[in-house]
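Minutes, project check-in
Item: structure for the 319-residue chain
Input as provided by the requester:
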Amino acid sequence: MAANINSFASLRKPAWHGLGTIIDKPVSSTEFQEIAGLNWEVSDSPLYTAGMYELNDKKAIIRNDTNEYLGVVGIDYVSIQNEILFQTMKELGEYDTELVIETAGALGKGETVWCLAKMPSLRLKMGEDIVDPYILLMNGHIGNYPMKLFPTTVRIECQNTLRMALKNSNHLSMGFSIKHSCNAMERLNTAKNSLKEIAIEWEETKAKMQQLADTKISDTTIEELIAGTFGEKKISKRGATLNENRNSRIYEILESPTCNVSGTSGTLWSAFNAITEYLEHDAGLKSENKLEAKFENNMIAGPALNYKENAWNTALELV
């Protein structure tokens, strides 16, 4: 069974799941960690068989403030504490003095934690359409995820999320992935020092976004974008009906105010955002817990994120 959102804090505005604490003004990374309910650590605990023989190749991870068992990892697994995420954000602020933490929280009993910060100095404005770059730091405490540091963007009108910094014209950057090993802190320092590289990638991405905003669309273009996003294959009659409903909803979004912003209306950029808005808000999720599924589907790994990458690559091909 999927886990619930355990704790959450957001700067100024509530999130889509309606939970957590809303902060009315920016605070320090230390304060944000406390408000988000992430001021706890994890520790190792030995594992024993029913006959009380200690297992030499496994250990348990325990949350110290609640003494809850979170999971089992290998004996060489090195934990990365929550404090590291917020300390890293503080240090990243040395590169971008306008960096502000926007959200942070934990999933389940604390198996997965994250921290998201806005980087206003890298903002992109196309007409009245604004794209704000963010940096997401996340960590899995039980080997479910390595620590990840990667760029993502949020379009303020409809809050679509996508990893948009490019390493080249064809592949989306996945940022940095840090394994829970003895050299984890060394790798994290390398990632922090590579923020300038991310900024360079973002400049390349902005140029490609502008290309999309400068390219007018037709019905044929939209059809090609949808086909490239979701793929074309033989489907059942029911599947054809579902696809027709999906496409109809995408067209509705394209005609809505969120995709008719002065300066980008009627362009590939608006069509791209209509698809990502559909994926963010309308696409169904097969999960017992919609909150965690939506977070993972759009921010970490899932069909929605894959479709968004397809949409991005297809849009670039159509320019």
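Outcome recorded: The chain is about 35% helix and 25% strand.
No further action items on this chain.
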